[in-house]
Amino acid sequence: MKRIFGLKNDKAPAPSVQDATDRINQRGETVDEKIKKLDAELCRYKEQIKKTRPGPAQEAVKARAMRVLKQKRMYEGQRDMLYNQTFNLDQVAFAAEGIKDAQQTALQGARFKAIQAELRVCPDWNLLPTS
What does the pLDDT read at residue 129? Predict the structure, then answer.
């Protein structure tokens, strides 16, 4: 039956730990690309500093190089933070898998104990047909 305000929207499934890890890794790769571009720019400025004579022109190039270096350090900090988040998510996924394995092991142990209890209760267990 339709509602007054339309149909109920189905919610998208919640993202998994692996999805989050993939997104963070993708952002980390983007930051790595930016760092590589800044490295190339720093090399260009380094060559310009070597070629120019000491004075205001060289100081201007040094100032631009310092700005790029600060930006590079900022991106490196972001990259490290993203990779730390990835590490933490991997640890969470590993712990979750360990918990699932422990639950399955406990469930199998409970089933085994139930079968043992049945065998103890059934006095004619060796009289059952084997085929």
Answer: 58
Residue with tokens 């690309």: 33
Give which of 10, 24, 32 is closest to 92, Cα–Cα. Answer: 24
Q: What pTM was estimated for this model as a whole?
A: 0.65
Intervals of the chain under pLDDT 70 = 1-3, 5-6, 121-131
Question: What φ, ψ does residue 3 adopt, rounded to 5°?
Answer: -85, 175
Q: Are 72 and 45 in contact (CB under 8 A)?
A: no
Handedness of CA 14, 18, 19, 24 (dihedral sign): positive
Token look-up 């730390």 returns 84
Token pair recorded at residue 54: 């000491």
Whole-number Å distance between alpha carbons of 116 and 27: 54
Calculated CA dihedral for residues 62, 64, 68, 69, nearest 10 degrees: 20
User: For 6, phi and psi rounded to 5 degrees?
Assistant: 110, -175
Closest C-alpha among 15, 122, 22, 42 to residue 82? 22
